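Please check our next protein.
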Amino acid sequence: MKDKQEFFQLLGEIDSKDFSEYTRIIGDFDFSRYVVKFNRVPGEGEGSEVLFVVRVPQSVAEFPPHLANTPIRRTALEDMLTRKVAKAIEGQAFYNDEGVSRRHLSIAVPGQKILPRSALVVADEFVEARLVCNLPQRRGRILGEEARDIFFRELPAVVNAALIYCNLDEREVDRFVDLMEDADAIRQALPTRGLISFVGEGALLTRRDRSDLPDFDRDVPFLIPEEMRTSVDVPNEGSLRGLGIPTGITVILGDAYSGRPELMKALANGIYNHIPGDGREYVVTMPDAVYVAAEERRSVQRVDISAFVRQNPAGRDVKQYTTSHADPCAAQSAATAEALEIGARALLFDEADSNSGFLCLDSRLKGLSTSADLHFIPLSARARQIADELGVSIVVAGASSVTEFIPVADTVLRIDNYQVSDVTREAKQLAIQMADLKADQADVSGLAERSRWVVPSSIDPGQGRFDAIIESPSTELLKFGGHTMDLRGIAQLADRHQTATIGLVMYYAKTRYMDEGRPIREILDLVDRDLSTEGLECLSRELRGDLARPRRYEIAAALNRLPTLRISRVSA
């Protein structure tokens, strides 16, 4: 291994030479307190960004073992250190003549959600950060002095500020790690308490417009009356009080300004843990909950939507519904069936993101038509069957489109100015009549079928001379081969790094497990196993610092929206 003095000299030797001379920095360099590793440098036409590794031995970093003695605590520590590295890099930024901040170094910065990522690794022997450097060059010529400044001034400052334990606030580190451990303890306790979600008392749910960031200007604490509070014991904070959303069917009533939409979004995002100060630190939802939205014009491949659509006017087989442009009702029916197929144990619906015809019928018009006239059977008519026969909980929220759920609901809650009240008894006394569809109690087991097999040749990320083009310019867009997929209908995506990782998962599944057709659920079981045992590194032959682990539900949702996807049906 070469030392830092040799690296310093090397940068001087290649100064002003052709950019290709940067290949001479490939290798490991000992900087005394840490090691810098370069596996490759950009080739012609690849730009000037290079991924490199900074590895600090624990004998130098000295992070106490208790901070990473469980997978949950390790993930929390890695997440916090990634944020510390990003902050330290920001502190080294310079400003050009226009006042725009410029950085030579970067790291894949997390958003509000904490989840396993590849940007930083904490091991028993070392702490490793995976950084990107924009190698200095001008018109294809190396700027050696600028490179020296990056690696001998900026990088040591980042390492000292973010990767050495004694330079961090011990209480801040402990709080960050303990918070995630407590949130995970709540999540583990939910099934034993008969709950699908827990909303901590005083949670701050408002977000900035089109953002996941807290809106401190509009923050109103979530209030829970004493008689509705439940408590959960956690390892660090002791006992936490909050609202428990029970299993079964729950209706949440409230208008668009009551706090209802914010609560539903918080429940949907409660599948992830959140950083301190987010406001939703103790809003925790079971990991198998899926938020289902209407999504006009999405593609659907051989999904059994017969539980909701009795007769398709276009003559398509509703047991193997296929279209490239689904209407909102059929699309939401398909999304519901797809989530159940993959193993969802709770479904979340809000009227703001739903098709009204999918959610319910207007019982006031029941005299104008008979059950036999209906093309669509609403969710309100199937909810009790889904809950009882499939053991799947349903939470449905709204102001006007959810009243037909009240007769079949186990719990009815009302939200007003971010304050919740239990109105189950009063709601039941309203004697709301559902449309009479008793004669149409079809078998709903098809919603959780496992007979959809992927045709391997339909998963192709290649384009032109490239074997795989997988890019994610934003959370809601995924370029996979020759197609850019619109994923706005997948509400629980965390960030663009997770979206890009989904594309890699699809490619990984194709190359490793689709030598022959397999059911979608079996493919995801195998991928989940690999990600749990081998980590995110199994997804790419090259070292990556921008991966974020997705759930099986978002992977399946993206796969089901791939325009080239083809499904074969295997009879049970």
